[in-house]
UniProtKB/TrEMBL annotation:
Protein name as catalogued: FAD-binding oxidoreductase
Record carries keyword Oxidoreductase: yes
SUPFAM superfamilies named in the record: FAD/NAD(P)-binding domain
Gene Ontology molecular-function annotations: oxidoreductase activity
Annotated Gene Ontology cellular component terms: cytoplasm
Pfam families recorded: DAO
Domain FAD dependent oxidoreductase positions: 38-392
Organism: Paraburkholderia tagetis
Gene3D superfamilies found in the cross-reference section: D-Amino Acid Oxidase, subunit A, domain 2 (3.30.9.10), FAD/NAD(P)-binding domain (3.50.50.60)
Record's keyword terms, sorted: Oxidoreductase
Superkingdom, natural source: Bacteria
Length: 439
């Protein structure tokens, strides 16, 4: 019997969820009583929803349960920065080659277009084909930006280098020295998107919210234990993000990293006219791995995301949220000194899973047990295609894309705590120092 000891919880005020439509709607009941299903997917985020939908497409008569410890949109899928990224951040042609990057681009584009179909069909709001900026403030971080632009050029990916007054005009702030703009990225309210996808679930998929798995007795059949209930199933898909180690099938492969975000109140008409005249919604990631992600949203708010930490307990405290809020204020006011009177309506934390070699976990971990994790900070898109192709893998549907995923999903070993704790904290601290003003 594998007992679960750490559970997801809400960390702070979830800005994307609070500003999404139908924020208080419950999509599924708590799991009570005894049930049998052909498939159980644990985790109702982008990865789990994608897996459940594709399983239903492949086997329309199958009975599928989709369970989550929280409400849909309260987990990592509703807390991230809302970038649907088409071009990989961490291209390393010396290691993987151009064709590897092109294969990732093809998978990312497939996921974006699949999500777009659901967005169009179910009128999911807050979708903007705005592209993405990768930018640097510090001169010391310009080489990383130039290296990214060089790799894009080498691979034949369209991009623009934007600097000076033109960059200021586009962003509404003169803070950044230079940026690389790519047009294929989509900006979303991730909570609105993941909740909107629930409308696409067929009747063969039963959703249970607020239903944390307390323990799992591996079989098959596998028996999932809940407070007041149990599910028996021959096949379980674990799409549990940073909580995957709790289920005992993927030890020492991922590092869960906590990060934090804030979302301002909407800017006033006067503020928009004075400082953002002609500025369209935009999203920006930093040329430095520890730098700040910034967005100017469709509803005229500023989004700030930075501050990283390794928290083995997979939850934050009030003190940690307060420290993140203070860092967010400093980062916000450095970029927008003319908006110091603008307050943050929401500040929250969330955890994402990274791997040492940037490859995800995507495997059959045991008989009837399949595991997905390690999306390395790009889980909206990566989780969507990994969930889709995991369903194909389970159902025996072969493809070149599935073969590529299987060949490139071998996360390298990471040491257990306390070595992992020491190493992660040291690396995070050093990254913060070298990022300097890009935080």
């Amino acid at each position: 019997m594998q007992k679960i000891t750490r559970f997801p919880r809400v960390d702070g005020d979830l800005g994307w969820l609070e500003t999404a439509p139908d924020t208080n709607v419950a999509f599924g009941p708590r799991l009570k009583g005894n049930h049998e299903f052909d498939y159980v997917v644990i985790g109702a985020g982008f990865t789990g929803i994608s897996a459940a939908m594709r399983l239903a497409e492949n086997e329309p008569s199958a009975r599928i349960a989709l369970v989550d410890a929280l409400r849909v949109g309260e987990g990592a899928s509703g807390r991230n920065a809302g970038f649907l990224i088409d071009l990989p951040h961490n291209m390393n042609f010396a290691k993987t080659g151009v064709e590897h990057a092109r294969s990732l681009f093809r998978l990312n584009t497939f996921a974006i277009e699949r999500l777009r179909q659901f967005k169009d069909r179910y009128a999911i709001p807050f979708w903007n084909d705005a592209g993405k900026y990768m930018a640097a403030h510090e001169e010391s971080n310009l080489p990383g930006l130039e290296n990214f632009a060089g790799m894009l050029k080498h691979a034949g990916f369209d991009h623009d280098l934007v600097t000076g007054p033109e960059l200021t005009r586009r962003l509404g702030t003169p803070y950044y020295r230079s940026a690389v703009y790519t047009k294929g990225n989509v900006l979303v309210n991730p909570a609105a998107l993941v909740r909107g996808l629930i409308k696409a679930l067929p009747r063969s998929v039963t959703l249970f919210e607020n239903s944390p798995v307390q323990a799992i007795e591996y079989g098959p059949p596998h028996k999932l234990k809940f407070i007041g209930g149990e599910i028996s199933t021959p096949i379980v898909v674990q799409a549990t993000n940073s909580f995957v180690e709790q289920f005992g099938k993927l030890p020492n492969r991922i590092v869960p990293i906590f990060t934090y975000a804030s979302l301002t109140q909407p800017l006033t008409e006067r503020q928009l006219a004075q400082h953002f005249k002609g500025v369209k919604p935009w999203g920006l990631t930093s040329a430095h791995m520890a730098g700040t992600t910034v967005r100017f949203t469709d509803d005229n708010r500023i989004f700030i995301r930075n501050t990283y930490d390794y928290l083995p307990e997979l939850r934050s405290t009030g003190d940690e949220l307060d420290a993140a809020w203070r860092q967010h204020r400093a980062s916000f006011e450095a970029r927008f000194p003319f908006l110091k009177e603008v307050t943050f309506d929401y500040t929250w934390g969330g955890v994402f899973s990274i791997t040492q070699n940037h490859e995800p976990a995507f495997s059959r971990a045991d008989e009837g047990v399949y595991v997905i994790s390690g999306c390395n900070g790009v889980g909206v898109v990566k989780g969507t295609y990994l969930g889709y192709y995991m369903a194909d893998y389970i159902c025996g549907i072969e493809s070149d894309d599935l073969s590529f995923i299987l060949e490139n999903s071998n996360p390298s070993w990471v040491p257990p705590d306390p070595l992992r704790f020491v190493g992660a904290r040291a690396r995070i601290a050093w990254a913060g120092v070298t990022a300097k003003g890009d935080v």
